[in-house]
Amino acid sequence: MTPPDDPDEETRASTDRNGLAHLQSDISPDLYRDAVGVVIGMQDHIDSTYSTRRLLEEAFTAYCVELEDHYNDGRRWAPATQITRGGIDPTARAVGKSLKPLQSWIEIGVRDRCYGTVNGMKKAASPTFTLRDLVESALNRHIDHLRRTHNGFDWEPQDQPRRGRRGRPNIPME
Q1: Rounded to whole angstroms, how far apart are CA atoms 16 and 52?
Q2: What is the mean predicted confidence (pLDDT) over 104-129?
Q3: CA dist., res. 98 & res. 88, Å (int)
Q4: Interatomic CA distance for residues 44 and 166, integer angstroms
């Protein structure tokens, strides 16, 4: 495969005309099931329009602020359209082993902030910091926050997200 003539071609291919960017990362299967369960629980009990996109955007925004406060004197790292590659962590999980792909369309600004935060963390804390590190930590923290905030609900982990039936669990699929 030859590199594209236009260096921004790959970035444009992962964005749509509505200002959204495709984000993909691998996470632990247990965390994936927790995230799906929380989204379904939020749809059923709190807000029928709650989505995976909203969960991710809230989680990333809050965690980026936390990392910026701790590692960058409260200043935002520069947004980035790509993650800087570098550093191999010999203790990291093998790709494809005990991982589940997580994909969603999110606002371009949120994606660029995530990438900028990963790049900033590579310089400030660890050259082996990855997008997966950010995604898993952000999701764990935000899921815990939502469970504490809505403590009357025990959202069970789920294997599959609902498609097109938000907040209406008993509608049969055609």
Answers
A1: 18
A2: 94
A3: 19
A4: 7
The per-residue pLDDT for range 45-104, each reduced to its tens digit, is 999 999 999 999 999 999 999 999 999 999 999 999 999 887 555 555 555 468 898 889
Is 121 a member of any domain?
yes
d(CA 37, CA 160): 9
Mean pLDDT calculated for residue range 35-45: 93
**What's the structural domain count of the chain?**
1
Residue 4: inside a domain, yes or no?
A: no
Residue 173: inside a domain: no
DSSP category for residue 152: T
Q: How many CB atoms lie within 10 A of CB 119?
A: 19
Question: CB neighbours of 169 closer than 8 A, spacing ≥ 6?
Answer: 44, 162
Do 77 and 120 contact (CB within 8 A), yes or no? yes
Bridge partners (DSSP) of residue 7 are: none
| Owner of token pair 């291919």 | 13
Strands (E), the chain: 20-27, 100-107
Q: Which domain holds residue 114?
A: 18-149
Strand partners, 115: none
**Cα distance between the two ends of the chain:** 41
- What whole-number distance in Å separates Cα of residue 42 and Cα of residue 36? 10
